[in-house]
Design a protein that fits this description.
This protein is mostly helical. It contains twelve helices and no strands. The chain binds fe (ii) ion (FE2) (2 copies). One fe (ii) ion (FE2) binds next to helix 5 and helix 6.
Length: 373
């Protein structure tokens, strides 16, 4: 463990050491310059109990210690996911299906590092001693030691099927989180979001195109791809947090984290169901994208489906309950057998890994663009 971090320079040195450990050197990063980026945002608090007041520029302006602590925690969790995903994706460079894909992976990871850097910047520059401790911890936990804060970010990304399903659905969750933070009452956090959201859209696009390119090539069995959908989407549901969440309600009341559709939704927020609301919007978006990928599957062949929202949950009211991927409540022994059938097992992972050696497993980006996918 490194010495106690006390300055931004110390943190930056520690970041360099982390990059070397994870292998984010050479052509993986190129001459990319890591920096914090801020856009202008609406100057007033837009929801919650402080609505209409000026956004807080510094921690000293935050009216309550509990709000300050909640804000610091939201930033730390966001930063944790950013560095975690780079750790998860660190071993994929050698099996990139094309130079285009290598460059896309390198860009995604550079931007995730920048997002983590941005969150660390806020912690170190605004939250004093405790913020510096949190910023250091962002570089101490490891996805592959299962010590990251949220479940999705402790799962293995073994191959490019994993990566493309991950960017389609887990980065999409990221978009939801960033958008919810984009109207935060803490101005430096709100101002961090527009540049991050612009970068994030490339990650989602990589995943969405990638799924369609897999389907278009017609090599990977839909059943195998479906197992990866089941794996990642069930963890994505968990990322929206518990049902009837008290902390989500406080984050809303404090003005720290809005609804995903805060700007467009004139109805007053149901403060007791904020996580459920965001999760439902996410499921609706995911369902549409899956339907659009299904249109590339020839008639008469199995289609991709979205797992039931209760399937394989570790968080919330359905946590640990034996729901099937298609929404049936199973006896526990049958559920155990079901999981083996619908989630990637060792043989599935080996099969998926083997596809990485077949250059035809995925259609080129050009071929997809040509069919207007
Ligand atoms: Fe990100
Ligand atoms: Fe991302």
């Amino acid at each position: 463990m490194a010495a106690k971090v006390v300055t931004w320079q110390d943190w930056s040195d520690y970041f360099e050491a982390w990059k070397r450990e994870i292998g984010m050197v050479g052509e993986h990063v190129g001459d990319y310059r890591f920096e914090a980026r801020f856009d202008d945002v609406h100057p007033e608090i837009e929801f919650g109990d402080f609505r209409g007041a000026r956004k807080w520029e510094t921690v000293l302006e935050i009216p309550d210690q509990r709000i300050r602590d909640a804000c610091e925690y939201l930033i730390a969790v966001q930063g944790d996911t950013e560095f975690a995903s780079v750790e998860q994706q660190r071993a994929l460079y050698d099996t990139a299906p094309s130079d285009y894909d290598f460059q896309a992976l390198a860009r995604v990871n550079r931007e995730e590092m920048r997002h983590g850097y941005q969150m660390a910047y806020l912690l170190v520059h605004h939250f004093g001693e405790s913020g510096r401790r949190e910023a250091q911890k962002l570089l101490e936990r490891r996805a592959f030691k299962r010590s990251r804060l949220l479940g999705s970010f402790n799962e293995d990304v073994d191959n490019w099927i994993d990566f493309l399903v991950f960017t389609q659905f887990i980065d999409r969750d990221g978009k939801f989180q960033l958008k919810m933070l984009s109207r935060s009452a803490f101005a430096p956090l709100a101002r961090s979001m527009p540049p991050m959201l612009r970068e994030e859209s490339f990650h989602l696009g990589t995943g969405n195109d990638g799924i369609k390119r897999i389907v278009r090539a017609g090599k990977v069995p839909i059943g195998l791809l479906q197992k990866y959908f089941n794996k990642w989407l069930s963890t994505a549901y968990d990322l929206f947090g518990v049902d009837h969440s008290g902390s989500a309600q406080w984050a809303y009341v404090y003005g720290l984290k809005g609804r995903y559709d805060e700007g467009e939704n004139p109805a007053p927020a149901d403060r007791s169901q904020l996580n459920e609301h965001a999760r439902e919007l996410f499921v609706a978006e995911a369902r549409q994208l899956i339907e659009s990928a299904n249109r590339l599957i020839p008639e008469g062949q199995p289609k991709l489906t979205i797992p039931d929202i209760r399937f394989n949950r570790r968080i919330g009211g359905y946590a640990g309950q034996p729901w099937s991927v298609d929404g049936r409540l199973l006896p526990p022994e049958e559920h155990a057998r079901h999981l083996v059938l619908v989630l990637p097992q060792r043989a599935d992972i080996e099969l998926a890994n083997a596809f990485m050696k077949d250059p035809a497993w995925i259609a080129s980006k050009k071929a997809l663009d040509a069919v207007g996918g």
